[in-house]
Specification:
heterodimer; A: 322 residues; alpha/beta; Rossmann fold; seven-stranded mixed β-sheet; 13 strands; B: 307 residues; Transketo_C/PFOR_II (chain A); PDHB_mito-type (chain A)
């Protein structure tokens, strides 16, 4: 099963089992089923609770917050995650704050789904990974779709939190198969933090990465192992923020993400790991991310900006051999 | 969808011969006394942060209250003390909230602009509550037909894009949404003429949403005007009810840049002297009682420990 189908199945299951859940977004209704077809079939099965909306990201995020206030659950699809900037006020100043600013906890069951990432030539305003802009908002949890965790579990967990959540879905994952890892590496854990490693071997380093770049990291892990005899273990947390990670016994850690330089999610991960594990690390956590740039449209220019397997390989090797 | 557009204006010269009930008058005077007390506490350095009083606009929520039901939601804004007091009659809880004392409605976290109690909720960002109210009314329409959401906004709020997104949804989805516009002619320091092209009526008409306008301060006249349209809201026909009103005081505190003439004009339109003149003896008695109550509330709350 591909990631897109897994997401679609998760939404079907969620709406089937929880009759309060509404889904809103632009062009989400059948036969179109959303720009990336993640909502396919939902409006046919649940016509009362699936609302195809005007191009109004601010308002539909507010509508989700209103449904949540009234006790319903709500899932909002941003057609492109870039457009979540238009929903920032409703999400940050209202939905997330409402959890605690009224003095007692107000449950807010809502999820903003954000297709993110480049590699498709959509250009500067349809290719970003905006995760970093949402890090550190009280009452707002961040998740990223991974090929190593069933999205039904992810949605159940997000709604269970009863606070607004953003789910970042890297668009390049949609056509990827779930749970697929090529030997000799093996997927060892599938829970909140998936682990991909070489069974029985002690790694030279750990690479922490969001689900969207997992395959790029795995490609680098393969060349590092085959060409350089460097062994990495990959950790893919389902929840990006708040950060919760248990490290295997290693003294070198890398964080890989597609977001551009400056104020990154990786910097937050590094801060958490430094605070907990400074004494056993032989150097600071190394951040690997895209360049400090807009994301160009032309394929060769886009490749130069976005983080890729080669950059991951090169940075890990240079850091370990320095 | 076809919606008839009403636009009426009420001559505001007189208040009803019968006058407001004791309860209505007490509500009006209690809110007035509460707001005056806040400014007094500020001057004495006893309040933290800022506040926005509704002096001059007290009659709007008082007029609306009997048109609302317990199941209705009310969304308020930065200038919301009158809205809260008309809805919950709880000056102790509100003052404790504003002062961060024991008994605060929201534990002192929200303060003047962020209050939630039962189905009443205020937020401090302009235009933010309208989309939220669309979500609530979407729920009500299915789960509790007949209930509505009443959202207070100001003339300045129309600068926000979210207002238009929400009005579009309300009309499109036929939501039971009552938008009450307190058009006091000034957004903080900027007169409406300098920040709004066109009219509020024109904006409502653009979405096929019914619009009523009144410059009356007469509670009975306002209720008579609004009652049928509010009943229609409950059937899924949203309404923009525009009150041409007057802000007597500053935007928050000590920041009134209006000239003496403008401020005098606002005072000339105030409900307070009109109601006083209409029934001097009863008015004076109820006013004294309201002030005494608020004095007692303030003495009580200021003596409490932190929330």
């Amino acid at each position: 099963m591909r990631v897109a189908e897994n997401l679609n199945a998760a939404l079907h299951g969620l709406m089937e089992h929880d009759p309060t859940v509404h889904l809103l977004g632009e062009d989400v209704a059948d036969p179109y089923g959303g720009a990336f077809k993640i909502t396919r079939g939902l409006s046919t099965r649940f016509p009362e609770r699936v609302l195809t909306t005007p191009i109004s990201e601010n308002a539909i995020t507010g509508v989700a917050a209103g449904l949540a206030l009234a006790g319903d659950g709500a899932v909002v699809e941003m057609m492109f995650g870039d457009f979540a900037a238009l929903a920032f006020d409703q999400l940050v100043n209202f939905a997330a704050k409402s959890v605690s600013m009224y003095g007692s906890r107000v449950p807010m069951r809502m999820v903003l789904r954000c297709p993110v990432g480049g590699g498709r030539g959509y250009g500067p305003t349809h290719s970003q990974s905006l995760q970093k802009h949402f890090v550190g908002v009280p009452g707002l949890a961040l998740y990223e779709t991974s090929p190593f965790r069933d999205n039904a579990e992810v949605f159940a967990e997000m709604l269970q939190r009863a606070e607004p959540c953003v789910l970042f879905e890297d668009k390049v994952l949609y056509t990827r198969a779930m749970y697929e890892v090529e030997p000799p590496f093996a997927l060892r854990a599938q829970g909140a933090v998936a682990e991909v490693s070489l069974p029985g071997e002690r790694p030279d380093c750990v690479v922490v990465a969001g689900g969207g770049v997992a395959h790029r990291v795995l490609a680098a892990m393969r060349t590092l192992l085959v060409e350089e005899d460097v062994l990495c273990t990959l950790l893919v947390p389902s929840r990006l923020y708040p950060v919760e990670l248990e490290l295997p016994e290693v003294d070198r850690v890398f964080v890989v993400e597609e977001g551009t330089a400056g104020g990154t999610w990786g910097a937050e991960v590094a801060h958490v790991l430094h605070t907990r594990h400074w004494s056993r690390l032989s150097g600071p956590v190394t951040l690997i991310h895209s360049a400090d740039s807009v994301i160009p449209t032309a394929a060769h220019l886009e490749r130069d900006v976005l983080v890729g397997a080669e950059a991951v390989h090169r940075t890990i090797l240079e850091t370990l051999r320095a | 969808m076809s919606v008839s557009i009403w636009e009426r204006s009420h001559a505001s010269g007189q208040v009803s011969a019968v006058g407001p009930s004791d309860d209505d008058l007490t509500q009006l005077l209690t809110i007035r006394a509460f707001e005056r007390k806040l400014l007094d506490l500020f001057e004495r350095g006893m309040l933290n942060g800022t506040t926005h009083t509704c002096l001059g606009q007290e009659y709007v929520p008082v007029a609306l209250e009997p048109l609302l039901r317990p199941a209705d939601h009310v969304f308020s804004n930065h200038r919301g003390h009158g809205h809260y007091l008309a809805r919950h009659r709880d000056p102790e809880g509100l003052l404790a909230e504003i002062m961060g004392r024991r008994g605060a409605v929201c534990g002192g976290v929200g303060g003047s602009q962020h209050i939630r109690r039962d189905r009443y909720l205020s937020t401090g960002v302009q235009g933010e509550s309208l989309p939220v109210a669309c979500g609530v009314t979407l729920h009500l329409k299915r789960a509790e037909p007949g209930a509505l959401a009443c959202v207070y906004i100001g003339d300045g709020t129309f600068g926000e894009g979210g207002v238009y997104e929400a009005l579009n949804l309300a009309a499109l989805w036929q939501l039971p949404l009552l938008v009450v516009v307190e058009n006091n002619g000034i957004a903080q320091s900027t007169p409406t003429a300098r920040n709004m092209a066109g009219t509020i009526a024109g904006r409502a008409a653009a979405f096929g949403i019914a619009h009523l306008r009144t410059d009356s301060v007469d509670l009975d006249a306002i209720r008579t005007l609004l009652a049928p349209a509010v009943a229609a809201v409950r059937q899924g026909r949203p309404l923009v009810a525009e009150f041409a009103t007057h802000r007597l005081g500053p935007h928050s505190k000590g920041d009134d840049t209006r000239g003496a003439e403008e401020i005098a004009a606002a005072h000339a339109a105030d409900w307070y002297p009109r109601y006083a003149a209409a029934d001097p003896e009863r008015f004076a008695r109820l006013d004294a009682a309201a002030r005494a109550r608020i004095d007692a509330v303030a003495a009580d709350v200021t003596g409490r420990e932190p929330a």
